[in-house]
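Late entry, written up from scratch paper. The run itself happened at the end of the previous shift, but nothing got recorded in the book at the time, so transcribing now.
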Amino acid sequence: MMQNAGKELLSIISLTDIKCAVIAVGDYTWSEDATTYTLKVGYNEEELKTFFNSLCSTTYDSGYGGQELFGTVWLNDGTWLTRGENDGSEWWVHHSLPEIPILLKI
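Output as recorded:
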């Protein structure tokens, strides 16, 4: 199933949630042939627009086969997104720091 990388990301978060990001599109994780999109901490509006427009012009097959989209998106709330994959099916996974269990608190 063909997916638009930008629209997929926006289905999970708002652009204003992004602190920084690095996303690569290719046949293997960070291969030389991969196209990499970066958004650095402290980006300006034009850099955000360029980053998002690049993602919106990128489609990939999110179905069976090899993973094609790799990366991490750090969010302003201290959480982050990474790519999940199983048999070539892929998606964004939202991570946050786990609660510290009571037995570890003094």
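The longest helix spans residues 45-56.
(Scratch paper discarded after transcription.)
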